[in-house]
Design a protein that fits this description.
The longest helix is centred in the first third of the chain and has 32 residues. It is built from 29 helices and 17 strands. Helices cover 50% and strands 12% of the residues. Helix 6 packs across helix 21 and helix 9 runs antiparallel to helix 16. The chain has 758 residues and is an alpha/beta fold.
């Protein structure tokens, strides 16, 4: 039994290929086609079954019942993290609310009773078969290149279908409120209401619904506590909006349950489910109370009328389109009468908040034009603030305008961060993912990926190429009139990075998928990782050291180029915290890694923090000794501190343990005065063959600083370390017993970044 907010480790296992090795490509494609054909046929059957429920039962009751009983709403308990799957994902109730609007409302105060399991199974089969039907995209695939293209489209389609919450709730609400602020005055003037009031109400519905649901459960418990059948009847009639029963009516019902008190309670509990509709219904007066700002009931109607649907309004809608283009995502409320609004989607209001806000904005062209410009500025400022906080000792330059000598064109770099010999070149893109792209429409999806992933890559790498070719002091003008002046001659390692406001899921962070699909001409070394703003916030939160952040960005790009994997950015950071991306030769052997759900290890900390529950913060796994070295290195900032940290972060956990063991053994020998040689050191080579680093432990005593330095130079020049890409010498003066080290040294000749081809 797992405790709320308990971290569930997602272990890695090796699994065999599901296809027989003797199957041809055509035979494999035939399997997909058969799956799609069967799924399409079964989908039609299940659709008819589910629509029969709407003809027999009240649709609002069905929606509320499904939310209450089929979703796992336990706070801090993640079934998917525990079991590796979730039988009834939240998006099923979104489909249910949509289907409820295919016809007029059928009023019937009848509970599902014994039909509840069949209702649930029908919903699961309906959605499962629809998902499998997407394999039909392979119908005309005749080559592996075409398959890569189809899989890219399917990846976006499944992301749109099933993935909810593009960030943690507080992040989504923060971004929505920030965007509302940059356009508040013009929004109010054009549309007649304050966007912050709308967000107050929208987010307030979430907590208000939760409160009403808890009250409903408490009322049920009060009824169940009754000791006699009359007590149970009295309490039920007192709490719930039902007619008071007569003595004869009570006696008839009492006999109907064979005079069994528990059976009576169960019947009344089932009947109380008919009242669940009220839990998810808000009157205009209720909505008005959810904001501290001044707003009238009429103004509430004005707002929510625009994002509500009525029964029968979706009649004639293509049932095959609602899964990737669900109308309830644009209008998440059902207007039940002239003053009330129903929705079982409060759990995704934070997820929808920016889209809903932009839906209002897009009704006015001038407002839209202004908003898009301001949104771009907002993203650039947020990124700048994040990097200034994350790299307090860095040189940071915003908006450098430079001319490319090859094309004679003028370009502008959004952000340049210089830390010692490392530079991060950031390009920001605030564009959105269009509805057709979310549905996997080929041309629109590919165009979106080019805008949000390829374009910033090309811009960042173009500036990198220019700086590499011109190692000197530069003076670049900026839009604000100031000049950015810096010396690029000392920069040895460049890290290009794109940052977006939109969340592209596993597609955006897996560049190899783009190159394999051949939708772009770029090679892998001509692309840079693309990370969303909110994911960047998470990365910086989890990696407190500047060296860790730089190491993640650098290795993140190499890992993406070398590995075939499935997962999004938070899955990657979850895997990084476990391994530092130090996986030895597995990085180059062509194996596939499914990292999906690694992000689940992060959820307890961030979700716990949002709900006031203290959960230990995830961190990069390393020994205490290694952590202490890295902390002191970053605190002291000796001339080679960043190079040393970078090498140390390349060390596998087992090698950290081995090094400390050997080093302590050698220190003991030297301390006792029984060394084999006059000067002794222990050597650890870590990393795969093509990217090895040398870490030396050098204990010494009774020698001068000059003599110590001579020994360090001798180690650096020794043949043992000549093939290493970088060297760290951890010196320990046994006369003083400095911890974790007395001196840290190495060679300035480093070759950190691996080539991106395998």
């Amino acid at each position: 039994m797992h405790r709320p907010y308990e971290v569930v480790k997602q272990r890695m296992f090796e699994t065999p290929n599901p296809f027989r090795t003797d199957l041809s490509f055509e035979e494999k494609m035939a399997v997909f086609k058969d799956i799609a054909a069967d799924a399409n046929a079964e989908y039609e059957v299940e659709f008819e079954k589910i629509m029969q429920y709407f003809k027999r039962y009240d649709p609002l009751y069905l929606c509320a019942f499904a939310f209450n009983y089929f979703l796992d709403n336990r706070a801090g308990i993640d079934t998917e993290a525990i079991e590796g799957k979730i039988d009834f994902p939240p998006f099923y109730v979104e489909i249910l609310q949509c289907l409820a609007l295919f016809q007029n409302r059928h009023y019937n105060a009848e509970p599902l009773h014994s039909n509840a399991p069949h209702f649930r199974d029908t919903l699961i089969k309906l959605n499962t078969n629809l998902s499998y039907s997407y394999y039909g995209l392979t119908q005309n695939v005749s080559s592996i290149d075409e398959l890569h293209l189809v899989m890219l489209r399917m990846g976006m389609m499944l992301h749109t279908l099933a993935v909810r919450n593009w960030a943690y709730e507080s992040q989504m609400q923060s971004v929505a409120r920030d965007l509302a602020s940059i356009i508040q005055t013009r929004f109010r003037d054009k549309l007649g209401f304050d966007p912050h009031i709308f967000l107050d109400i929208l987010f307030g519905i979430v907590s208000n619904t939760s409160s009403k649901l808890n009250t409903h459960f408490q009322n049920i418990r009060k009824v169940v506590k009754g000791k006699t059948h009359d007590e149970v009847f009295d309490k039920y009639e007192e709490i719930f909006d039902v007619e008071v029963t007569s003595v004869d009516q009570r006696e008839k019902m009492w006999r109907g349950v064979s005079r069994k008190l528990m059976s009576l309670k169960i019947v009344l509990m089932e009947h109380s489910d008919l009242a669940l509709e009220k839990v998810f219904t808000s009157s205009a007066k209720e909505l008005k109370m959810l904001t501290q700002h001044e707003i009238t009931v009429e103004e509430c109607h004005l707002i929510f009328e625009k994002i509500s649907l009525r029964f029968g309004e979706l009649q004639g809608t293509d049932k095959n389109h609602i899964f990737l283009n669900n109308p309830v995502h644009r209008k998440p409320f059902i207007k039940t009468d002239e003053s009330e609004y129903f929705s079982v989607l409060p759990y995704m209001f934070s997820h929808l908040s920016v889209d809903l806000l932009e839906g209002f904005i897009n009704t006015d062209k001038e407002l839209t034009k202004y908003y898009l410009a301001e949104k771009g500025k907002y993203l650039e400022k947020k990124i700048e603030d994040l990097f200034r906080t994350a790299f307090p000792t860095a040189q940071i330059f915003v908006g450098s305008k430079w001319k490319c000598p090859d094309t004679n064109k003028l370009y502008e770099n959004d952000l340049l961060i210089i830390v010692k010999e490392f530079a991060v070149i950031v390009e920001a893109k605030s564009g959105t993912i269009s509805p057709p792209a979310r549905r996997g429409a080929k041309d629109r999806l590919f165009e979106t990926l080019k805008q949000l992933v390829v374009a910033p890559s090309e811009q960042a790498i173009r500036f990198e190429t220019f700086l590499k070719s011109n190692p000197k002091v530069h003076t670049f003008k900026t839009t604000g009139g100031k000049s950015n002046v810096f010396d690029s001659s000392g920069i040895k390692y460049f890290i290009p990075l794109g940052v977006t406001l939109s969340h592209l899921g596993s597609i955006g962070c897996n560049l190899k998928k783009l190159t394999e699909a051949k939708i772009i001409p770029n090679k892998i070394n001509e692309l840079a990782p693309s990370i969303s703003l909110t994911d960047l916030e998470i990365i910086f939160d989890l990696l407190p050291l500047q060296s860790e952040k730089l190491h993640y960005f650098a290795r993140r790009r190499e890992f993406d180029a070398h590995m075939t994997f499935q997962g999004d950015e938070l899955d990657l950071i979850g895997f990084y915290l476990d391994t530092g991306f130090n996986i030895g030769e597995d990085e180059f052997n062509g194996s596939f890694m499914n990292l999906t759900l690694k992000s689940k290890e992060l959820d307890p900390y961030f979700m716990g923090k949002e709900h006031g529950v203290a959960v230990k913060k995830p961190h990069l796994i390393k020994t205490r000794y290694w952590q202490d070295i890295l902390n002191v290195v970053e605190e002291r900032k000796s001339p080679n501190w960043l190079q040393s940290s970078y090498i140390l972060l390349h060390t596998l956990l087992k090698d950290q343990i081995l090094f400390e063991k050997k080093f302590n053994e050698l220190k003991m020998i030297v301390r006792k005065g029984k060394p084999l040689k006059k000067h002794n050191w222990s050597l650890l080579k870590t990393g795969p063959k093509r990217r090895q680093y040398a870490i030396i432990g050098y204990p010494y005593k009774n020698i001068t600083i000059d003599e110590r330095n001579d020994v360090i130079k001798m180690i650096v020049d020794s043949g043992e370390v000549q093939d290493a890409r970088g060297i760290v010498i951890i010196g320990c003066n046994l006369d003083n017993e400095h911890y974790p080290y007395s001196v840290l040294a190495g060679s300035s000749l480093t070759d950190f970044f691996d080539r991106l081809d395998i």
